[in-house]
């Protein structure tokens, strides 16, 4: 056709060789990423700083012992926690802090009688896939207590993966994301905790909340959070919360009148 001349009698559509091509469709955000982005934006609007949570392997010391969770607690059994085979133990922990935590577990202190147990170093040094991001919260609070110039009030949050050795069903997975927030300041109360929780959930559209007394090894008082689901027409558990115990905070070196509220 190009070699002949009969093309000259045909009509052709005009072409702009300088125009941009159609935009490439790069896909969409995964629903989980959308939720994470929304929660992160809301928490930052509320004045929270994001904690570095990109370390999935933790020692039992930071995951359990630093939180005043007894070494005999059933959550520390292999049927609830993924323990690491190689490397099976951590290289180091802060030794002076370790001794205070050990003594608090065994003999008490800071108004507590402790657990009256034999605290085993080999148990504290075991590596595991973190069962909650509270392991990072404990390390951040420890750094806050030891920073030059002493303690300053802070608001931290994290949204990241945690791992539990659980049978999988419609409501349980062995890997899931945990949203966690904490406020460390002087003379905080349970009312401050309830107010912050209500503010956060109101911002994501959950306005009908209830709080129920609960038990956690490292918080006292503790509360479960429930929200009313208008479609299911029932109350659904949304999370857990509480005030960190003195047996967790005081060994870190935080001042006596510093309170930490968390959910």
Shape: elongated
How far apart, in Å, are the first and last alpha carbons?
A: 75 Å
- What share of the residues lie within helices? 25-40%
State Rg: 26 Å
The tally of helices reads 7
List segments where confidence is low: pLDDT < 50 over at least 5 consecutive residues. Answer: none
Task: Give, in order, the helices and strands.
Answer: HEEHHHEHEEHEEEHE
**Tally of strands:** 9
The major pleated sheet works out as:
7 strands, mixed
Briefly note the structural class of the backbone.
alpha+beta
Mean pLDDT: 92
* Biggest β-sheet: strands ordered side by side in the sheet: 1-4-5-9-8-7-6
How much β-strand is present in the residues? 15-25%
Description:
With 263 residues, the protein is α+β, with helices and mostly antiparallel strands. 25% of the residues lie in helices and 25% in strands. It is built from seven helices and nine strands. The strands form two sheets. A seven-stranded mixed β-sheet has the order 1-4-5-9-8-7-6, sandwiched between helices. It has a two-stranded antiparallel ribbon with strand order 2-3. Strand 6 (209-216) and strand 7 (219-229) form a beta hairpin. The longest helix has 15 residues, at 31-45. The N and C termini lie far apart (75 Å). 27% of the residues are buried.
List the SSEs and their pairings.
Elements lengths: L30 H15 L3 E2 L6 E3 H4 L31 H13 L13 H4 L2 E3 L4 H13 L7 E10 L11 E12 L3 H14 L5 E8 L2 E11 L4 E11 L1 H4 L8 E5 L1
Parallel strand pairs: 1-4
Antiparallel strand pairs: 2-3, 4-5, 5-9, 6-7, 7-8, 8-9
